[in-house]
Write a structure and sequence with these properties.
Length: 153
């Protein structure tokens, strides 16, 4: 199994960023077309992203500093609902919040796709959490990497 780790600085306080990880409207402002969230340990985590039904549950909810959810895709043999773990750690900084993300327990073949996804979505979180409009999301798995690879060649 593999893990992906990254971080991003957001010019908003942790209390604001936290809402984008725990509310339906907050989540869909930066990731997914539909969300049904129940942000308490054992509560439902359901987000539909680019035609994929991501399902799991909230494992830890510590306002406003930490959110951990289980994560997987309905119908995926290698990564079924709840089989991996996504952790967001929010740390107050002088300029806002440092968001540290770890997506763990990923099958090795799924690591590049999830890396691409998080590198696409976290900047959208920054836009939304600072009051901007992230806009319609054209992202599809593999398209961002394919686009970057084409630009590099």
């Amino acid at each position: 199994m593999a893990a992906f780790e990254t971080s991003i600085e957001i010019e908003a306080p942790p209390e604001v960023v936290f809402e984008y990880l725990t509310t339906d409207a907050g989540m869909t402002a930066w990731m997914g077309q539909h969300a049904s969230l129940d942000p308490r340990p054992g509560g439902r985590f359901a987000v539909d992203i680019a035609g994929y039904a991501i399902r799991g549950e909230y494992l830890h909810v510590e306002p406003p500093r930490r959110v951990v959810v289980s994560w997987g895709s309905v119908g995926a043999a290698e990564l079924p609902p709840g089989s991996s773990t996504v952790e967001f750690v929010l740390t107050a900084t002088a300029g806002g919040t440092l968001v540290e993300l770890t997506h763990a327990d990923l099958p090795e073949p799924d690591l590049p796709g999830h890396q691409d996804g998080w590198q696409h979505f976290l900047p959208r979180l920054r836009i939304a959490a600072t009051g901007g409009e992230a806009g319609a999301d054209p992202w599809r798995p593999g398209t961002d990497r394919q686009h970057r690879d084409h630009q590099e060649n």
